[in-house]
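Training component of the fellowship. As part of building independent skills, the fellow (R.M.) carried out the full modelling exercise for a liganded target. The chosen ligand was zinc ion. The inputs are recorded below so that the supervisory panel can assess the work.
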Amino acid sequence: MPQTPDLDLTRDALATSTLSHGLHLLGDRWTVALILGAFLGVRRFDEWQTRLGIPRQTLAERLKALTELGLLGPRPYQERPPRYDYHLTQKGMQLYNHVLMMWAWERRWGSRSLALPQRLVHKTCGHAFVPRMSCSACNEKVGIRDLTFSLEVNEALRAVPAPRQRGARLTPEEGAQMGLGLRVDRWALLIVSAVLLGCHYFDQISHVLGIGSSVLARRLAGMVDSGLLLCQPDLNDARRKIYRLTPASNDLSGYIICFSNWASRFHFHEPSSIRPTHKGCGQPFVPQVVCGHCEEPLLPWEVVAEGHAG
Ligand SMILES: [Zn+2]
Ligand SMILES: [Zn+2]
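Fellow's submitted model of the complex:
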């Protein structure tokens, strides 16, 4: 039977995590799609609109938001009427690790309906590769089982007001289509994080994420259906069910950790309340994403994306 986590601490750590705050900024479907597009070389309004099928008004809003966040920088290419190219800024470029982990996850588990490249080639070593996460301190390959987590509530981030939710409240059906792939949205990532931190029961997840029963029940059922959670009877108490991560949701941890690290270092400039340690070397875990072939860290301009799907 799983150990009971400190539920109030877990709740406060999740609420003050750079993950949760970062997902408020960048966790919606269109924003994710725009960032992926920018890394694949999409620069212009019309090109985004054609490639992503995004409504013009929504596209204009998202480009403005990403510009205000300092992730995209507009450069005029035509005076009348004024037209702009949108380039990734240095801060935007720092999202590359997270984008690579997203691509790796989608390739393995996703529906491939996003405009993703078929193949990534590392120019430095000349090989097609699958990106993978390793430890910056010791360079060992790291999966979720190689990490332990300690929690330290970050009061500075508690004070940050929750950003306004974009758009209307989502129905579960729409929710299922947002974010990372077709199946993963902001709440799914937070639920995966709660389970990762040891919350395996309905009431525990409800407590730490502050989600009401009926909404949570729908969300958990949807995640079970789409292979992101296992729901098993608790052998110690037949009335309770235990929720566990699946291989697909375990694999989301790379994405979650890289994104949380980005938000911490390059946006909030605050340590995350959820602190991973690499068991192998005992150091605080700082992720790096490396080429699965030559094991060198990856830079956007050293990678060629071949064959765009979708
Ligand atoms: Zn290490
Ligand atoms: Zn390589």
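The panel noted the following from the submitted structure. Confidence is low (pLDDT under 50) at residues 164-182. The two ends are 44 Å apart (CA to CA).
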